[in-house]
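Structure Section — protein described below
Tokens — whole-number codes for backbone shape
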Amino acid sequence: MTDLARASLEHSSGAMTTVSRPGALDAVGSLAASLLAGGSVVLLGDGVGKSVRGADVDALVEAQLAERYELRRVVVAGGAHGVVLDESTLDAAAHDAAGAELVVSVGSGTVTDLAKVVGQRLGVPILAVQTAASVNGFADSLSVLVQRGAKRTSPSAWPSALVIDHDVLAAAPDRLSRAGVGDAVAVWTSPADWYLACALGVDPGPYTDAWTAPVREAVERMTAPGVDDAARMAGLVDALTLGGLMIGAAGSTAPLSGCEHLLSHVLDMRAMAEGVDHDLHGAQVGVASVVSAALWDVALHEERILDVAIEDLEPPADLRERVLATWAPVDASGALGEECWTAVERKVDRWREQRDAVAAFLADRAAHGAELERLAGDPASCAAALATWGAPATFSGLAPAVDAERARWALGALPFMRDRMTLADLLLFAGRWDGALVERVLARAGEAGGGL
């Protein structure tokens, strides 16, 4: 096991204390006392019941705080998509928590992301009680928000204290842990997108294995054959917590968020716009990790994308029209398309500013190709790791299932959503991003045990 207490202090520059062990829930009272001697505390949650050893988790937390603090509950209601962190939800939660001197969150990654925003707005410390091993976002200083219908990652605040009770996590629904596996397995392919963006000068970087290697090692432990349930859960906790710490320290999700996370966000955005259900973020990321690894396989070995000449790399003249057309079926008002175009335009501007870096990248394509081969992952390994935990590896295995049309659309939409450079953008600029490529990628993922 990783010493998460030491790692948390190190990578948060002393901002966050972590208690991670079976029975860690009993540390809530002492941690709160270290942050606030007495006064007003808001308990932030989503109203979803959570239990451990036959007891209610919220009640166990409240019992440790009731004598010392004036307690108020702020319950954020979820809809068809759970709690959605759009502008109105953020404003309402901050209003309801006004006057608090400490925010204590009990719940999911979304509830924790909300607490980090509310605590930052109020200028007060945050004590986060993690109730599932579902995402890596508990242990970072960023929050995934919905801005004008688009998913965006924004700076927020480190929790001052993070409580990870392994008994609470083990009692959570299995689908939450399987979603965490999907989020963790992304480390086998996402660093390739970050390396590419840094090497092309579009991401300031610089790329370093320091942000990814500890997470990769923990994922290998949690997916190794023959380990017992407790050891597997400990490995999952390490992988997710280290992942959060690394992206918090880096100040960006880029080291652990490539095409696979983007594909999940695209699926979320379409489902929210249409008012239909979608699966958990991590579950979608796991499926998308197989697809992302297949995309790298096709791009490097069939398309030979690194052999392209610099004069053949140019954003398409009709890029704005393509962005708007991608999102028009989802939002007929055009607002979502315009929001996405604003982000894509920033990406294109940075690309054009880095022409010398692109030329240098292509001049040293052999060395860069070797690094990308190392980081791009193997789709079959991703699929096998998901299978070890019973996590879905195909779009049809998600709940609800994502049909072939929606999967093809989501994959095709990758270059048309945000301002971060990925392999999909390089293929687009090379004139290779079309329906035929999408079909070959999905077929390669299918051969590996994923895809449709």
Observations:
- Residues 335 and 436 are 29 Å apart (CA to CA).
- The mean pLDDT is 95.
